[in-house]
Structure formats: structure tokens, C-alpha cells
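Hi there,

I know you've been waiting on this one. I reran it after we fixed the sequence typo, so this is the corrected version. Both the input and the resulting structure follow.
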Amino acid sequence: MYELIKESLTDRNAALELSKSKKDITEVVDAISDLSLEETMKLGTIFKQFPIGCDLTEVVVGTCASDLDEKELYGNCHLANMIGAPIHICAYAFADIAEKADKKGIEIMEEVYNLTDVPLDLDHFGKYGPMRFPREIVKCGGDCYNKGPSFTECPRGRIHSRLIDKEKEGIIDKEEWVKLSSSVAINLTSEQNGDAHAAPLEEAIDLANLAKKYNKGLEAIMFVGDGYDELITGFENAINLETDVFVIEGGPFNRCENTTEGFAKAIAMSRILCPGKVVATNGAYENECRAGLRSGLNVIITGFPKNHHGYMCGYEPGTARRGKFGLPKIIEIMNEEIKDSRVRVPVQRDELMALTHAVKFAGPENIYPKKIGSFTLGDAHWATVQNSKMYKDLKLPITLDEITNELNKDSISIHGGRFTSWSIAKELDSKGVEEIIITDVDPMVEEITVNNLQEELNATIIRGNQDDTDSAKKAKQSVIATTIPNITRLINKKIPNAINIL
């Protein structure tokens, strides 16, 4: 494993082999622990690329806090929805806001679901439903992040206490919260010597089973911790519970000797090990965020003022305190650190709509965690997005079955070689098409797509060598396999007779 990881730094074929292979967690951690920071960043970036990983960079936004009123919460949610940022649901805060308004927590959740259409990410949820905390917890000023850089317990010696009797009152609505969510977060830090900060593993297992019951995306929250034994424990539990997304918390929960390097290595390790190929952080100092973004980090969870995620990412000790508006700062950090992205950084509503269209077009029978060839069609985003209201409300102009019926010819050229083309090629193959030409502006995408499809399909799959016009001339019919309008228009200028899926 060590040699394969080292080879992956300079050899794409080695990276592909590593991506496909069964991985030993300890061997991966050992190998990446021996890399320099520069090598770590290079490796993480390589494995963020399609189709080895997930190449999107995005913010997920906490819109709530216990001392907000309903209108403030809804306004925050409207704004997140307008920019296309998934909403991180801190269930305890929804329940507290509801209590002040003489409502049930699920009523607030339903209202947010009805007001928005972006994915809803459920957190702080336990065996009875929303977790409930005493005043000193929900009013916490963020002392741990402000004092940093690391500690073993709360600076005031406070434990992570809960109001269990209040939680039990909400158990009747427990499954309804999950039904309205797109993804569910579980916390594994109690297994990493973080039992003062998280519920026991049994609660995580209970919630993981409930998420699977309703086919929701599953996220595993874990600490960087000591960067070795505790991190291995987190990875092992996350994989055993079949989680889709790894969420790595640094900040005061990073006890590595070199915290920046330790965080970067935890992100790169996650890039290799995470089944859904999406790696996030819910708490990381600014220097960790920057190193993490260069090491393959996809998602930073941030927040509005008063929401605790508003200060947990992007600030340094001495400045990280409750009341910070983390969202604009995280957006600026992302734009400073991510260069040459094929899409906007972070992705916004237009990109989210295009992704949702692709997911719905490809169909649940094809997408992640199902595979075509050696790779899943899509990543954990595809599992999450299909549970959103945006997905539910989207009306497809043409379905996969309809378009492949129109393309029932001997030779077809597909323009755009990313995941949508995989579903089209698979369907065409099932209908007996003999030859499929794949072209993409990115030669790596084109080559890997062709090789991957040829592993599974009976049709002959041919590279179009990044030439749309020539590929269309060689085929009897052509289809543009992108859900991004401006790309469709550009290709349509070269191939006016092509069918497109928009």
C-alpha cells in the first residue's frame, strides 16, 4: 500500500489502481503519515479529481441558534437557499426555537422544508430525536475554539450534558425528522476518547440504521485527535457503519504536534478511504481550512451569527467566538486556496440545479452507491441530492429511457464524458447499440470514462480525442450529455443536430 500511494503522486494508473483496490486503514494512515506536507497536498488534490474522487468545493450552512426567533431562522434559510447552500440542521436549536413559539420541533423542520429546496443535513440528533441541552451549552461562547489549540475537556470542566426527559417528549416525531432530511450526521468521537463531547456509539448505530431505513446519506463526524490511533478508530467505525461522508473536526480537537500538517494528512487519508468520496470539516482553524482545501477537502460547514458553526471554521484562537458570521470568510478562503476549478468556488445554486438534474436523469437504479465498471456513478452528493425537495420538484424535459429510444442507432457519439454519459452509455448498451464514441474536453476524463465503460458494456467504446465535430461525423447520431446550459450551447454550435438532455 505504501508503494502504491507513493506511486500515485506521479502515476495516474497507480492512483486509479489505488482508488479501485480494497484498502487497509492502518496501512493508508501509515503511508500518508510518512509523506511531507507538499506530498500530502498533492495526493489529496489528485484524489479529489473525477472520477477518482469528488471535485466539487462547497459550503454547508448552519442557519439556526437557540436564541433566534422563527423569522430570523426562516430569513437565514431563505438566504442559504438563494445561494444554493445546503442547510445544516442543528436539531436542538430547531427544538428550542419551536419551544419558545409554543410549537413542536418537527413543525419548524417542516416549515424550513417547505420554504427551501436545497438539501437538509440533520445533526445533533439522538436516540429520541433532537438532542436537548441546558442553557450553558446552547449559550456557549466557544471557549474551546477561542482558547485552543487543543484540550482534552471543556475549558470550564463542563461535560456535554443533555436534557434527556425533554428529548423523550419528542420521540413520537423522531422518524419524521429523518424523512424530511437529505442526510444525517452521526458522531463517532466518543470512540476516539471524546466521550465528554459526544453520545455513545450505540446512539450513532441507532441513527445510522434509521438513516439507511429511509435511504438517506450518512455522515460520520470524527476528530483529528492524535492523528493516528484515534483517527484510525474513527475511520474503522465510519467504514463499519457504511457512512458516505467523512467529517473531520480539527481546531481544539487536533492534538497533533504540527496541527496544520496533521489536519492536512487527515483530509488526504479521508480522500483515499471515504466510500462516498466526499470529505468535510465541521470545525477547523483558518490555517487548517487552507491546508485542508489544498489536500482535497470538499466541504466546509459554516454558519450565520450565533450558530456555533459560524466560528468553528475559518478563525484562529483568540478570534473564534460565538457571534461570528463564518460564511463570507469561508467563501473568501476557498477562493484564495482553490485555483483552476472547472466550476465556481464554492458551487452555487446553478451548479446544484445541474447536479440535481443529472442525478434525476441518471435514475436511482444507476447512481451511487451502485457501480458501472470499477466506479460508482457519482459520489455521496448523488445520494444526498436525491433526497432533496429540489430533486422532488424537478421536472425532467426528457428521461433517460426517452432519449435512448431516440438514439437507437448502430453508432452513437456522446459529448461530455462525466457521470451522465455513463448512464446513457449503459442504457444504449442494453438496447444493443454496437459502438459508442465518448468525447470530453478533459483528456483524463475521456480516457478513464472509456476504459471504465468498456469494463462492463458489450458495445465498443471509442475515444473521441476531445473533438466534438469529428466524433459527431463518425457517428450516426449524437447526444450532448451535460446538464450545464452554457456547455450545451457551446457544443450545440458545433453539432446543431445533436439531441440534448436539457
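Quick highlight: The mean pLDDT is 96.

Best,
R. S.
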